[in-house]
Amino acid sequence: MSDRLFSRGDLRATLENHERIELAKVNSLEPQKVREHPEVAVAEVVESARVEPLTFNWEGITRGPVSEAVVERRDFGELIQIPGQKVTIHVPFSGDEILLDCRASTFSLSGFPFDVDVTRTHVNLHISETTLTAQSISTELSRFKSAISEKAGWANTDVSKWAVEFESKARNAVLRRQEELEKIASLENDIGIPLA
């Protein structure tokens, strides 16, 4: 997944799609709640749409055992395979995993040159070298920490801005629905014929 981290899709488009789905839920809220407690309805919609920012637990990292591996290198333009060593560093994270997939509005053209995969709770960094050392592992982990923290920061900034805009849109949608429900209630009163 390394060539895909922070590049599978556009974060703005993903958030806009999420927004459409969540705003459509305003029409399924209980009419009484919308009419009598619109702020409660707004809070419910906002909470339902919440996108959790990415955070990494750098103090909680663990590693797998060092193992033998085949390392690929370029030699005069040709890809060769040589014996080497590999270790996997497990970095716990919280937040919405989709943020690891999407490119934020701020991004770098340099890509994400790390061999990683993602589980529900960890980003796993695979470090392979012909000969691993504690220093080479530490250096690569430091580079990775800097790169992923920067990209996650960009994504979190986009989510934070979107959340403020979404709350305003949710409030407007609830108030529009409240107005429609009030019109229906007024019409019901004006008809003057009892319900069957």
UniProtKB/TrEMBL annotation:
Tree of life domain: Bacteria
Protein's UniProt name: Uncharacterized protein
